[in-house]
Amino acid sequence: MDDLNPLAGTAHLLEEVDKKLMVLLRDGRTLIGYLRSVDQFANLVLQRTIERIHVGNQYGDIPRGVFIIRGENVVLLGEIDREKEQKLPLKEISVDEILDAQRREQEQRQEKHRLVSKALKERGLAVNAELINEDFC
Amino acid sequence: MDDSFFGFDTTIPEDEGGDGRIGEEEYDALNDETFGSAINGDWEEAHETLVRLGGNGDKVRKRGGFADRGAYGGYPAGGNGVPRHANVLSSAPSSSGSTPAPFNAPFPGSRNMEDADLELNLSSMKLDDVDFSSFLDSEAGNVSNRVNLDSAVWASPPFPNNQPLFREAMRSAFKPQTQMKHQQEANANLALHHMRPQTGPKISTLEDIERNLIIQQAIPKQQQQQQTTDRKAFDEFSLANRQHMLPPTTPHQQQPKPQNKVPPGFMTTPQTSPPRTNLGFHGPHPMPEMLPNPQSQQQMNGLAGNRVPPGFIYPPGLPGSMPPLQQYPLLQQHGACALPPNFPLGGNQRPLPTPHLPTALNNFAMHPSFNAMRAAGLHPAAFMQPAHPLQHPQSRMPPHPLQAANNLLSQQQNSMFNMFNMRLVQEIQQNHPLLQQNAVVARQLQQSRGGSVPSDQRQKQQMQQQHLNRRPDASGNLPQDEYDEYANLMSTRDKHWLIGIQLSQLNTDTPYIDDYYYTVYRERKALQNGQVRQSQAHKDNQLNHPLTQPRGHAQLILVQLGNKNGTRNGHGQHRERRNSENTSSNNTGGSTNNAASGSGGNNNTLSGYIFSPLKFENSLGKLQYGSVTAPRKIIDADIMGGEASPGDVPGNSASSSVSTMSGINANSNAGTPLLPSANCDVTPSSMRKSRHILLLIETLYRYLLKLEDLENTDVMATIVLKKKKEAERIAALEQLEMANKTPEERAADASNPQSLNPQLKNKFNYEIETTDALVHKLKAGLTFDKVVAMMNVRKGKILLRRVMPFISEHSICWTVWSGVFCSLQTVIKKDKDDIEGILYALYPEFKKHISKASFETVVTISAAITLNDNKLTGIFCSRFGILSLVALILRAEEIYVSRVDQTLSDTNRQKWREFLAQVASCLTRTIQNQTISAAIESDAIQPLMDHFEHFKDLKLDALLALITEARHQID
Question: How far apart are CA B582 and CA B943, in angstroms?
């Protein structure tokens, strides 16, 4: 069968059009929206987009509306399972709360990083902060 | 008929005006929702004016309201609808033929025209003409909302005499089908099974439909009453069937549906189709999408492809034809097919889109690789119509006979779809106003095909269809009850374009290299499944298998390995060489000349060596290759940093010089290119020098190997064949690339040749050069200094030996020999282990050369021989040295005896004498402690002694003794 399918062995984003997708960007942001259009560069047009911020087992959604994403910024994307979405083991909190939580988390991380680099410095080691991507720690 | 239909009140008030008023309100609400404010002014006002001008304003208006309500509600037909419907059927033909003028009235553009003029006018219009589409959008579109086309639209036989030309063409094209129509009439139930979309006996044009729309709209009420009894009976029959199939309870039952505007025979279930089903095929319209309903007109109005306007909703829980629909997810998506034309949307009642098939199908036609898509690009309504339990046959949009036929077919075989769509495409091509010029061709095509699609093609399409349309449902991952008004914003054309890009990328003749993982995966899977049969793809892959025929990166690796070790250049057969070979030879620039002349005083250009690290094709990063035994990268990295040295390769021009200065010689003059000689002092590292010499030797070896290739016809034949193959490959690739390019891209490429597809690069860029060119390049590298340096390397000596036959005719060979003798002293010291083996191999060449040398050359060579008081003088302590010396003396004697040499001047004699004196004194002063085992021919002794007679004043006995001693040793 596959012999006759010219697109066998490949994946194409057209299958995802009009589906609800979660898109992870290079800067670490997570967007959830309905894919409306794609092109050959995997540039995406998301509609009814929300930016979802996860902190621990909490999350908050920031409405973003229509979102056009340059394809190179997409780390990964996947379809949202509508059934599982209904029974999310996470707790939704308000935008303000999640932003606050995110800020606190970042501060904690920075503090930890500061301590680590200080300790390393005392041992004669330099840590290049540039090399450590805070978002994916 | 009953007054109720499935429990609905289907009675119509006697006063039609009252009912019409209600319908009009509803209609207006719908209209507002649908169109917002009218696009082109207040169409309603204009319309009313026009209708008034037409004379039947009130009634038409009221009827329109009815019809529209019926269409939007999608309600089943009520009892009163039957007579009215039949009335329309019966009246339409006669009215269209007899009183055409009033029906033109609603069309603002042609209200004053005669019917014929209207037709001509419309036929000359383009579908995507702005005026036309907008006009249809605002006026005719809404007219059609209210007026249902019935089968009479297509059944209206009495076309005016002045029909458009293309209708004639259509008729002639569909003659066979016309005959079939009669058969179907004779036996409708039987004909049902034969019903195929292409069996339309008569094809109506857009103009026909429009005209019939007008007719319908303007038909006086009293005319509607004139219905034939057989039609009535038939419609009753149809209704009975509908009642039979419709579910008893429907959520959208709100109002009785008084009007039955649907052509009889378009039953939702084919099994229960009435005998007169084929009534609808009196004149099947080939272009359902061209019906001037608001949806299709909206699409025509600037929207490309099958966009679905907001308000589009996929019907939930479709029974019946849903499974086939689910087989065509792309179709659902692309073709905007998921919505039945009159699907009740509750609060979201908007004009529902009809796929713009002319565009879509023409796009399909433009993409031959998308037969499957084309096959699936069936009118969506055709799928949906029978599926919806609520859908009343009396659609707001006239159920197209083709659609109805397709409904039947949809439950049968997929191949029918393909046939249908191919037919549809053909029909559209024939009848589309824009494609008039193609009509003849298309008709011929159709006739030549005999009206049938090859079954294998159908099967293939079917297969592709199943693969391409894998989407499980039509509405993304939305819950089925969720309404996604922005779905299908991507048009079919967009999607096909995208898939086309992907397909073009997959188009490769070397899948094993270009699509390795999938290909191998498939092979393995095939093996697992025990498929002994080898597919064509498999064979292709085997052809390109790296083990059987190295190509691509496998070939590259081999080339790299071969060049690295320098050992693959053995004897004869076809050798692969590094890619940089040719680029380097082509890169000799002006700075090269400077460097070459600076180092060797030789103005010949020597192509530089540019190391290009191994890269795997299409890999993002550089994958460096290096091994313990061949740490090439490390060597090169070092050299790239400090380029210039006596052994520097001149081909590396100013840039490398600059890097040299920054890396090593930062204090030197940065403004001028560094000459190797200048760098000698500042780069004392013998290691670095030796590396440069190694690189030089390798460069010269390349020329040498090419020269040797030229000598071997077998090798040349192989190379030519390989070049041809590669050229064919590149040509094919280029062709493919050009085919996928727009003219703009081609222009851009022409202006920027750098942006060539890397695949187009010649992987086997063996450039066949002439011997002269190669010798020229060889000579550039064989300067005195370099020969001296090369003599210190084992493979340098071998190189010189192999080079000698090619340069024997050139004066450069004496430079080389001078270098050889000059280096003899150090060579002796260095290569104690294998003095004679390689060095002695040079002797036969020297002997050959010296036998033709002039006396001046002899003198020059003699001057190059280093003579000192060392106990280990090279010329005496090596077999090559002593034999060369003997050969030299013998040549001098020869010249002395013959006395024909013009260079036998006194100066040269004097020099020669000095040389002999030096040899003699050297021998007498120092006792050579190295035994010489030179094979001196016994007949050479006498000439030597004769020669020495010329210089009796010199104490040449020692030399003679040396030579004879050597001879004795041999003896």
Answer: 50
Q: For residue B671, what are the contacts with CB-CB under 8 A and spacing of at least 6?
A: none
Question: Which of A4, A6, A37 has its CB closest to that of B489?
Answer: A37
User: Which of A5, A34, A36 shows the shortest C-beta gap to B464?
Assistant: A5
pLDDT for position B929: 52
Q: What are the backbone dihedrals phi and psi of residue B509, each rounded to the nearest 5 degrees, phi first? A: -90, -5
- What residues of A are in contact with residue B535 (Cβ under 8 Å)? 3
Q: Which residues in B lie closer than 8 A to residue A44 (C-beta atoms)?
A: none
Tell me if A4 and B522 make a contact (CB, 8 A cut-off).
no
Whether residue A64 is found in the same domain as residue A38: yes
Cα–Cα distance measured from residue B202 to residue B184, given in angstroms and rounded to the nearest whole number: 13
Q: What is the mean pLDDT of chain B?
A: 55
Cβ contact, residue pair A1, B369, below 8 Å: no
In degrees and rounded to multiples of 5, residue A61 shows phi and psi of -110, 130
Per-residue pLDDT of chain A (137 residues; tens, 9 = 90+): 455 566 677 777 888 899 999 999 998 899 999 999 998 888 999 999 999 999 999 999 999 999 999 999 999 999 999 888 888 899 999 999 999 999 999 999 999 988 988 888 888 776 655 444 444 44
**A58 lies in which domain range?**
1-92
Q: Is residue B234 within 8 Å of residue B274, measured between CB atoms? A: yes
pLDDT of A70: 94
**Distance in angstroms (rounded) separating the CA atoms of residues B402 and B413:** 16
- Tell me the nearest-neighbour CA distance from B661 into chain A, angstroms: 31
Indicate whether A22 and A72 sit together in one domain: yes
| Domain assignments of chain B as residue spans, ordered by start | 690-771, 782-968
Nearest CA in chain B to A4: B464
- Same-domain check for residues A85 and A101: no
Please provide residue B79's backbone torsions phi and psi, each rounded to the nearest 5 degrees.
-65, -40
Question: What's the confidence (pLDDT) of residue B248?
Answer: 41
- The residues with which B207 forms a beta bridge, in sequence order, are none
Q: Which of B779, B797, B608, B796 is nearest to B707 (CA)?
A: B779
Residues A68 and A2 in one domain: yes
CA distance B120 to B139: 19
Q: In this structure, are A80 and A103 located in the same domain?
A: no
3-state DSSP assignment of residue B9: strand
Environment class of B410 (CB within 10 Å of its CB; exposed 0-12, middle 13-18, buried 19+): buried
Contact criterion met (CB below 8 Å) for A2 and A9: yes
Q: B544 and B513 in contact (C-beta within 8 Å)? A: yes
ipTM of the prediction greater than 0.85, yes or no: no
pLDDT for position B811? 81
Provide the CATH number for the domain around residue A16: 2.30.30.100
**Count of domains forming chain A:** 2
Say yes or no: A72 and A127 in one domain: no
State whether A71 and A45 are in the same domain. Answer: yes
Residues A107 and A60 in one domain: no
Task: Say which residue, B62 or B49, is predicted with more confidence.
Answer: B49
